[in-house]
Amino acid sequence: MRLSVDNLACRRSGRRIFANLSFALGPGDALAVTGRNGAGKSSLLAILSGRLRPDSGRITVGDVGEASLTECLHVVGHRDGLKGSLTAGENLLFAQRLLGAPRLDPRAALERLGLGHAHDLPVAYLSAGQRRRVALARLLVCARPLWLLDEPTAALDTASQAVLAELMEGHRAGGGLVIAATHQSLGLAGAAELRIETAAAAPVADVLEEWA
C-alpha cells in the first residue's frame, strides 16, 4: 500500500488548525505525528480515517486495487471503542465480523497482548491498561494494511509498550503502514517524524464567514 498526502489543511469551528501538510508513505513505512496538544494530530488521523473532511488538499492511495482508504485501515483512537457489557472476546469477534478479512481468532489476539485470561471477562471489569490492550488486539483480528493509532501507548506499562512495538514492527515487515500520533518515542526503527506546528489564528472575517 502507498499513501500520499498533498497540501492538506484542516479547519475546525472556524479556526485553521494546520495547513500545507504533505507526506508520502510506502510499504513498511512508519510515521510518528508529533506536536503540542491542540496542534491537530488527532484531526489529521480523523481526516485520514474519513471521519473529518479536510479544508483543502488531496489524499491519494495506491496499490490497493478497488478498495477505498476506509476499507484498508484500522483506527485505535483516544477512546478504546469497546462495549463494557461484552467480554473482551465478544468485542473482538464483533470487530472481526464487522471489518472482514479475518486474521487471528480473538483468543489468540488477546494472548499476543498478554490478555488470554480476559477472553471471557466483561470489558467493564478490566483496568484502563487492559482495556487499551483489548482495543489494540483489534489490529490482529483483521488484516488491514494501514494502522492509524492515536496515543497508542496511553495507559500501557513498559512491558505492554514493548509488545506493541513488536506488533508494529511485525506489521511493517509484512508491508504494512503505521501512522501514530504520539508524545513519546514508539521504538520504531527508521520511523519518520511529522511535527505539526500550530497554525496562526484565523482572521475574524474568516470566523464570521464560517458561522454565516
Task: List the defining traits of the structure above.
single chain, 212 residues, alpha/beta, Rossmann fold, 2 domains, five-stranded parallel beta sheet, three-stranded antiparallel beta sheet, 6 helices, 8 strands, disordered C terminus
Structure description:
It is a single chain. With 212 residues, the chain is an alpha/beta fold. The chain is globular, with a radius of gyration of 18 Å. It folds into two domains: 1-64 and 145-212, P-loop containing nucleotide triphosphate hydrolases (Rossmann fold), CATH 3.40.50; 83-144, no CATH class. Helix 5 (158-173) links the parallel strand 6 (146-150) and strand 7. The chain has helices at 41-49, 88-99, 106-112, 128-141, 158-173, 204-211, and strands spanning 2-12, 15-25, 30-34, 56-62, 73-76, 146-150, 177-181, 192-195. Helix content is 31%, strand content 25%. The chain has six helices and eight strands.
What's the gist of this structure?
Helix content is 31%, strand content 25%.
Task: Tell me roughly what share of residues is in helical segments.
Answer: 25-40%
The spatial strand order of the largest sheet comes to 5-6-7-3-8
**How many E-type strands?**
8
Question: If you compute it from the alpha carbons, what radius of gyration comes out, rounded to the nearest whole angstrom?
Answer: 18 Å
Oligomer: single chain
- CATH architecture group name of the largest domain: 3-Layer(aba) Sandwich
